[in-house]
Specification:
This protein is of the alpha/beta class. About 45% of the residues lie in helices and about 15% in strands. The radius of gyration is 29 Å and the shape is elongated.
Length: about 475
């Protein structure tokens, strides 16, 4: 490492003229004894001058990054595009220019939220590049020690990303999308498109103008903040990456859902379920039987709604325009569930099996299939919703405890069980299924925790009781 960099006296940075470099105004600081710079850069310039120290850019021994998660980058790209559109609208309003109606429609489709921001990138200028950096002091107006500089980095000098590779990839995906829409007048097909266009992949002349406005805003008024570590070698880069990622703590899912006002399904939960239907919600992800108030955790409600709207066990990637068209039907589901005797009451789980999240997940998967799936069938949907009112969701219904019953008990309850076995998985002889435990003394059926395995079987039981077709 350059010994001059170890000394945090900012005047020790080498200053070498370079006519072909790019310039940054930076604030110098001391981070645990190490010199760092803080800068603001146009988002477009950051893409041009940054690199990721992964296997695409370095040999194995010099890698200082994790593997890229393309799915995560795509979700961030949708967020960045939404931010670019927001910036384009704000720029026109600040200039007192008319905002095209089509641009506002794009904003509505992508969704709006109270505030948007990208967290700062953390990068490194490698020690081998330090001797080629030019530095000039910016007068500070009375400060005894200069801390503001203009630095000029040579064109072949990269800002190596220690934290933010997925954000960087997302920004690149947004510029690729905008360039394709503006230059080729084409949307990408299917999931490759960051914008939920409908039908044709052709971009009309009007929409081309809209995307041109967004591309200009992305290049001219969308900045990113960058924390620049200077002179780190590869081992120090690896340590920086480790420290930045090992000691972070994720926000609890329930708290994040409580704060978030961007995801359209989460907004549905807040406005339709909690305010209008008055569904009870608890902030603790662990719902216990011993202290059952009838509430369901936000995390479980989000999972159920993810299955309800998208057939996914989460609400990530929900599109506002799509969700808006589904709200009325989804509300019918929760109204039917809320009307079940005992649901939402004190000690609800002891009164009805429908208070157990796995049963709601099973119902939600069926609902999605008939309401929004490829085999959409409104007659079957109505049959399911009316069936929710008619099914016996009490613990004593022998269908729920079918796998716990002895042969004698199955014979005793033959009228209720009937042809249920034709709906259930055709297991090989000797296989014992365990979807939960039936306490014969308390007459309580507790389903197990392997919801991904159990929910489809509960769905089969519901299909049978509603008179819906078997999935076999």
């Amino acid at each position: 490492m350059n010994k001059e960099i170890e000394n945090t006296d900012h005047g020790n940075i080498p200053a070498t003229a370079n006519e072909n470099g790019f310039q940054l105004s930076v604030l110098a600081g001391n981070n645990f004894g190490a010199l760092t710079y803080t800068a603001t850069m146009p988002m477009y310039d950051f893409m041009l001058h940054s690199e990721v120290p992964n296997k695409e850019r370095r040999n194995e021994e010099n890698i200082a990054q994790r593997e890229l998660d393309s799915k995560h980058a795509r979700l961030l790209a949708q967020y960045v595009l939404k931010g670019v559109v927001r910036a384009a609208v704000a720029r026109l309003e600040a200039q007192e220019e008319e905002v095209p109606q089509e641009l506002l429609e794009v904003q509505n489709k992508l969704g709006n939220q109270p505030y948007m921001a990208l967290q700062p990138f953390v990068v490194n200028i490698q020690s081998t590049d330090m001797e080629n950096i030019e530095k000039t002091t910016i007068p500070t107006g009375g400060s005894t020690e200069p801390v503001l500089y203009n630095i000029t980095l040579p064109e072949n000098c990269s800002l190596w990303v220690s934290d933010g590779q997925h954000r960087r990839k997302a920004i690149g995906m947004v510029f690729e999308f905008l360039d394709n829409a503006c230059e080729n007048q084409k949307y990408y097909k299917g999931n490759r498109s960051l914008y939920p266009h409908e039908g044709s992949t052709e971009v009309s002349n009007t929409m081309q103008d809209v995307w041109e406005i967004c591309l200009t805003a992305a290049k001219e008024v969308c900045d990113v903040q960058v924390e620049i570590h200077v002179g780190l070698d590869v081992e120090q880069e690896k340590q920086l990456f480790t420290d930045l990622n090992m000691y972070s703590k994720k926000v609890k899912k329930d708290r994040a859902l409580s704060f978030d006002n961007s995801n359209p399904i989460n907004l549905f939960m807040k406005k339709e379920l909690f305010e209008k239907i008055e569904l009870k919600v608890c902030e603790d992800s662990e719902e216990t039987w011993d202290n059952d108030t009838g509430a369901i955790s936000r995390k479980n409600i989000a999972t159920i709604c993810g299955l309800l709207f998208m057939n996914k066990p989460n609400i990530n990637g929900a599109l506002p325009s799509k969700v808006a068209s589904q709200v009325a039907e989804a509300r019918r589901f929760w109204e039917a569930v809320s009307a079940v005797n005992g649901f939402g009451d004190e000690e609800a789980k002891s009164k009805t099996v429908i208070a157990q999240p796995v049963v709601l997940k099973a119902l939600a998967k069926l609902f999605y299939q008939f309401a929004f799936g490829k085999k959409r069938n409104l007659d079957m949907l109505d049959k399911l919703l009316s069936g929710i009112d008619e099914i016996d969701f009490s613990h004593q219904n022998p269908i729920w405890s079918f796998y716990e019953l002895t042969d004698a008990e199955k014979a005793e309850h033959q009228d209720a069980i009937g042809e249920l076995t034709e709906y259930l998985p055709n297991d090989p002889e000797g296989k014992v299924r365990n979807i939960g435990t039936y306490n014969r003394t308390e007459q309580i059926m507790k389903f197990g925790g392997r919801h991904n395995d159990i929910a489809p079987i509960v769905s089969d039981m519901i299909r049978y009781q509603c008179g819906l077709p078997s999935r076999n």
